[in-house]
Every structure is written in C-alpha cells, then in structure tokens.
TrEMBL record:
Residues 1-100 form the Tyr recombinase domain. The lineage of its organism: Bacteria, Bacillati, Actinomycetota, Actinomycetes, Streptosporangiales. This is Tyrosine-type recombinase/integrase. It comes from the Bacteria. Keywords: DNA recombination. It comes from Microbispora maris. The keyword Phosphoprotein does not apply. Gene3D superfamilies: Intergrase catalytic core. Signal peptide: none annotated.
Length: 117
C-alpha cells in the first residue's frame, strides 16, 4: 500500500489519494464516471455494489472491532448519534465478546475455591 501511495500521490500529508481527471477533488457527481464504477464492479463480479456499501461495510467492521459511537461519528464525519447507531449491528460474535468480558470481570471478583475454605 505504501509503495502505491508513494507512486501515485504527492508527498504532502494533505495530498489527495483519489483525484478527478484534472487532478482536483473527486466529487460525488463525477465519481461513478471517473472510477468507471459500473465496468469495474462488473469485472469484479459484484454488479449492484454501490460505493456507499463499502462505507457501510467499513464502519460496520469498525463497530464490531470495538469503535465507540464517538469513534464512528468521527470516521463518518457525522454529529448525529443516530447515524452512527446504524453501524452498531447486533451480532452473535458481539454477544460472545460481551459475555466473555462479563465473565472475566465476574471471575476476577469472585473468591476462588481455595480462599473460600
């Protein structure tokens, strides 16, 4: 990834990673055309994939990795908790993580069998 960024982007920390045809900001209005989105998704075998699906997937993964609502809000550029809540999907994996953490906390405070006698 670093090699690709070094090869295709400017060296300034504020350099754009994705640009329009003339090197400017890639706007929503010209993204699909500039990225050849329909052609690219067809070649990848994921027709019907929308760019926003990538954003949703990334933020759902961030949420399942433990990102707080504030973290998600910052990632998305939103100031609404309601918007961030969309990515807080309830999953069996999350339920297991919660149960494991709760079990660990309870186990820490319960007396052991040896000290109970």
């Amino acid at each position: 990834m670093r090699r690709r960024l070094d090869q295709f982007t400017e060296s300034e920390p504020t350099a754009l990673v994705f640009t329009g045809a003339n090197g400017g900001i890639l706007r929503r209005s010209n993204f699909r055309r500039a990225a050849k989105w329909s052609e690219t998704t067809r070649k990848l075998g994921v027709t019907g994939l929308h760019f926003h699906d990538l954003r949703h997937t990334g933020n759902t993964i961030a949420a399942s990795a433990g990102a707080s609502l504030r973290d998600l809000m910052a990632r998305m550029g939103h100031d609404s908790v309601r918007a961030a809540m969309i990515y807080q999907h309830r999953t069996a994996e999350t339920d297991h993580k919660i149960a494991d953490v709760m079990n660990g906390k309870i186990t820490q405070v319960l007396p052991t069998k040896a000290s109970a006698h």
